[in-house]
Amino acid sequence: MKTYATLSCIIAAFSLFSAQAQNKRPATANNPSDLPPARSVTLNPDTTVITSHDVTINGQKVPYRAITGTQPVWDADGKVMAGLFYTYYERTDVKDRSTRPLVISFNGGPGTPSVWMQIAYTGPRLLNIDDEGYPVQPYGIHENPHSILDIADILYVDPANTGFSRVLAKDAARENFFGVNADIKYLAEWINTFVSRHNRWASPKYLIGESYGTTRVSGLALELQNAQWMYLNGVILVSPTELGISRNGPVDAALMLPYYSATAWYHHALAQDLQSKDLTDFLPEVEQFTINELIPAISQGGFLDDQKRKAMAARMSRYSGLSEKVILQHNLKVPPQFYWKELLRDKGYTVGRLDSRYKGIDREDAGDSPDYNAELTSWLHAFTPAINIYLREELKFDTDLKYMMFGPVHPWDRNNDNTGENLRQAMAANPWLHVMIQSGYYDGACDYFNAKYSMWQLDPGGRLKDRLSWKGYRSGHMMYLRKDDLSKGNEDIREFIRKSIPKPGQPAKY
Fold first, then answer.
1. I want to staple 482 with a disulfide (CB 3.0 to 4.6 A). Which of 307, 311, 408, 475 is the partner?
2. Is the pTM of this model over 0.70?
3. Cα Rg for the chain, rounded, in angstroms?
4. Mean pLDDT of 489-505
5. What pLDDT digit, counting tens, does each position of 452-480 carry?
6. CA-to-CA distance for 136 and 144, rounded, in angstroms?
7. For the stretch 448-459, what's the b/e string if a residue is b when 16 or more beta carbons lie within 10 angstroms of its beta carbon?
8. How far is CA 183 from CA 111, 161, 335, in A?
9. DSSP string, 471-508
10. 47-245+381-500 domain in CATH 3.40.50.1820?
């Protein structure tokens, strides 16, 4: 901390010297306008900065204001425990906000801020990347013609110790912030305050979360409903986690195969008859094999007939691009980290965990897992400069705080994760609540077939399935980084919002 403070002083001194040199006269007490604005590495927990902008979305000019700032987290006695940074986009040519949807957006980790979806998916500005999501220079941002700001206002929230958000009270207990249920509880209180401050109680409300953010918003759906008396119209789960839904044993081992198939198809590692099929024509065959044959076979363990075991390995080899030998060596249960290392081992590459379209190079070809996540390294390359440029220069949030792409939130208490059941309860009690899942076929961290499985198990009785939907995209964990999926994903969100807003006067009842 002392080292960082010293460095900040050096930077501040250098900045002052530069300003004086440019003005060609010294700053004096009689000339206060020559001094640079006061900054700090200490967070003010309650601030607001407002800027005005416009963006053209689907050919329509949309004026909006961006409100960046911080809002406190209080304890039961009203003491400020933390300050959460947020960015709120509000369309300015809307007269009646009672019918204007509000989308509240979270990313995951746990430990990451809302940067990912803010400047790469739903927000009005996009970072500079190529059409497949790879970094390009110069770093920076440009207009997002696919943003959902045309039909909804958007709030991006950075949880405690991510982005510019900070836990401030020295006596603040970690267990009040850094765990599945603590995270949900304090964020629900914070959302209540935000909605009250900005007069959004009448608006249709939506939560969107990505990765661990799907755990967060699934739990928030019920917490907002039960503890804040705030009812939602929709929850959007982008690349969802397991949501506390059990899948141990044979199910857990088998469900990754369709993802392996998609990855092998992308890298042209399959037989020509499969490779010649379109991805979405080919995958249902693998999904049916997984459910109807592979799970029962793995369930038999060491008592599976040898001939049947070899037949299973042959089918898995055909669908995964791996050899029958390594599949048998793993007793039909191939770990994903081994798959990322093995698929292109003979070509000298690994494949990415979060997006298996990305290739990496390890120190040596031997081993059971990659040295690093090729895709995440690529993304940080593009996102980190862009968000710092955007917040500081365009949105005018002046601070010497470090914007933490991954913040100190661990250890994270994962006990009692019932968020899938929380979401089911919220849907059951609220006939207006709809859920949409968005998955990338090449996501190996939160794979698409596990997402489908979660959706099936979320509603075991089949009573809610008309309000549950799943969408697939030809990219990875951050499916929106691919230009075609950016357009398709945002359009799917638009359609979801339109369908989940009831007609005027329509009662919420079964």
1. 475
2. yes
3. 25
4. 96
5. 999 999 999 999 999 999 999 999 999 99
6. 17
7. bbbbbbbbebbb
8. 11, 12, 30
9. EEESS-SSGGGSHHHHHHHHHHHHHHHHHHSPPTT---
10. yes
User: What are the residue boundaries of the structural domains of the chain, listed by start?
Assistant: 2-34, 47-245+381-500, 250-375
From residue 255, alpha-carbon distances to 218, 331, 334, 493 in Å are 22, 15, 11, 27
CB 289 within 8 A of CB 315: yes
Alpha-helical runs (H) found in 300-411: 306-320, 324-329, 336-342, 374-389
- Whether omega before 411 lies within 30 degrees of 0, making that bond cis, reads yes
Chain segment 143-175, per-residue pLDDT in tens: 999 999 999 999 999 999 999 999 999 999 999
Tokens of 288: 């049916």
What the block records as the tokens of 342 is: 């093995």
- Relative to beta strand 102-106, strand 153-157 is parallel
What's the mean pLDDT in 287-316? 97
**For 149, what's the count of Cα atoms within 13 Å in the CB-facing half-sphere?**
34
CB 64 within 8 A of CB 81: no
Q: Is 218 left (phi over 0), alpha (psi -120 to 50) or beta?
A: alpha
Which pLDDT belongs to residue 377? 87
| Summary mean pLDDT of the chain | 92
Tokens 């002392």 belong to which residue? 2
- Asked if residues 423 and 242 have their Cβ atoms less than 8 Å apart, the reply is no
